[in-house]
Amino acid sequence: MEDCLAKKMEITVSEAEKRTGRNAVNMQETYTAYLIETRAVESHSEGQCAPVDSLWRRYSEFELLRNYLSVTYPHIVVPPLPEKRADFVWHKLSADNMDPDFVERRRIGLENFLLRVASHPVLCQDKIFFSFLTQEGGWKEMVNETGFQLKADSRLKALNATFRVKNPDKRFTELKHYSDELQSVISHLLRVRARVADRLYGVYKVHGNYGRVFSEWSAIEKEMGDGLQSAGHHMDVYAASIDDILEEEEHYADQLKEYLFYAEALRAVCRKHELMQYDLEMAAQDLTSKKQQCEELATGTVRTFSLKGMTSKFFGQETPEQREAKIKVLEEQIQEGEEQLKSKNLEGRDFVKSAWADIERFKEQKNHDLKEALISYAVMQISMCKKGIQVWTNAKECFSKM
Amino acid sequence: DTSLAEVNSFSPSMPISPSSMINQYKFEDEPELRDLFITVDDPESHITAIETFITYRVVTKTSRGEFDSSEYEVRRRYQDFLWLKSKLEEAHPTLIIPPLPEKFIMKGMVERFSDEFIETRRKALHKFLNRIADHPTLTFNEDFKIFLTAQAWELSSHKKQGPGLLSRMGQTVRAVASSVRGGVKNRPEIFTEMNNYMETFSQKINVVDKIAHRIYKEEREYFNEMKEYGPIHTLWSASEEDIADSLKGVASCIDKCCKATEKRMAGLSENLLPILHEYVLYSEILMGVLKRRDQIQGELDSKVDALANKKTEKDLLSEEIGKLEDKVECANNALKADWDRWKQNMQCDMRSTFTNVAENNLHYYEE
Hints:
The complex is a heterodimer. Helix content of chain A is 70%, strand content 8%. By secondary structure, chain A is mainly alpha-helical. Chain A has a 3-stranded antiparallel β-sheet with strand order 1-2-3. Chain A is elongated, with a radius of gyration of 32 Å. Chain B has a 3-stranded antiparallel β-sheet. In chain B, helix 2 (18-25) packs parallel to helix 10 (314-366), helix 8 runs antiparallel to helix 9 (244-309) and helix 9 (244-309) packs antiparallel against helix 10 (314-366). Chains A and B meet through helix 8 and helix 11 of A and helix 8, helix 9 and helix 10 of B. Chain A: This is SNX4 protein.
């Protein structure tokens, strides 16, 4: 593995804090700030730990960082940020951005984001990323100074290219389909999972009602009383156990969500390729038409219909000098065009090569992560069942003593 | 068997003496000594010009001498069961007659003749007859025997005998009147305790019944969502290569969970829910039995009062009072013994049913 930042530096997002301040239009707003702590990892530790550096950042700054990275490295599948707003909630979870559970899960997501960037062989070397982690003041200005916003492709341009490109690399087309499918299936899965969690919550919690009524009932029973009462206690335990179980499941959901958002990053790389390819195709088309024009002017034959040809028929031919001048201009343009085309071609091939390398890296990462996530989900289910077995074994004993 | 010898009369209105009755009621329930086996099955629909109704097949197998044959098969409809129950209540006002399934189901859109409804009713009717068969006194009731053995026309003609509808209505009116007159003054302590117990029990069992239904409903909704959950993973596996197997594995596990959930639900609906429902009905029945006992005592008390006021007709009143005192004592003893028996049964039923639920849940989690 290449030497990346993650190996040299410990990065954590350790705290979250509610702040109030004034925003751009001087209105008061509440937001959450996150504390980023970094510490250099000593390769020869002598029991002495390096000091911890820390600074506070808010979500919008993370967004700015990511936008910068996406524009500056369009051939890289840039790790996604955790969701802006709570999505796929089931009834117990709050959809409020200020809710402490949401903030906590976002904190973990932001830390994960930074770790992903820091362990990426290309991204970790970026200076802006480094100063995001280490430089408190003036970072925003530094980012804006890079002028990355100018380099960003307009949405409209990208959309246009997607529709009109003729010969995109097949692999990218397939990748785009894959990312569409991935997005659709994961969001469906998350939706259903949320509903399942809701129902499971209901089943467990209603059992809690047994606890109270058994206790009240046991008061009027003589022989049955003890068994009934202790069984009721186990019902309470059962009902309470669901909270922890579902909280753990939220982490699993978050892992899936990351790859849901990764699908968008994949699509962004495909779009960039389509844009470049379209650009290339347009340039080649332009060059071809210019060459044709040149040829027509030189030989005097009109092979294709053109307004110029028609007007010259009616209003008389141009003078030889005029024609010469035009040919000269065209020849210059053609030369420029050919050079441009060459470099665009090169660019395009480089892009495809480096993008595809990162995509392969991403695929491996994805397969590894998803497999681990599924395994941990299975482990969670097993643990839930074990707890269930324990509770009901106890309850059974109590019942049999009634 | 001396205790059986005491019971030489099937007509319950002429007991020999209070003490011998006590022996009769203390006859233990011993399933190994059971000599009467009843099943209720095979519901069939009958359509006439006037109405449509269901009959059930009642099969009885017995080794008892007083039965002419050892096997009987008859068809009965719900009305017939109602008749039997009211005859038993008439004959033994302070014994705890088992509950019948309700005439109609109020909540939900259960159609009168839906398969689910018929099956639930059939099971409850089966339970009803078996509980009577297990009861040390009721099992020897003559009307019960006729119910099990008579052909359809025999039963109808037998039904027409006995106190008519009007006199039965009169009884009910008197019962209501006496209960309106307020609580009984000389009620023995034990029956007040029973009353208090029943009030609380009735409350609690109703709540437990509601909770159990709610759990069943939630489990059903959970099951419905889970059915959709598994296939999504299979769909996903189609777009993947490396993790396709893992995804398919998850999908099949989820499907197994679904099946286990179905089993769990079935356990509830076959076991817990019917028993809880039966005891909900029982609590109403017991309140009724306690009222009837009070009413009998009330008759006695009012006659005693009358005696104190009327100087004439002393002898006649004294004789009546004597009879009523006997009656009251019988009623009280009957109830006491039956109460103990009912409570033991209830305990047993609750124990086994909840243990069963726990076991089902264990199996569910193990799977």
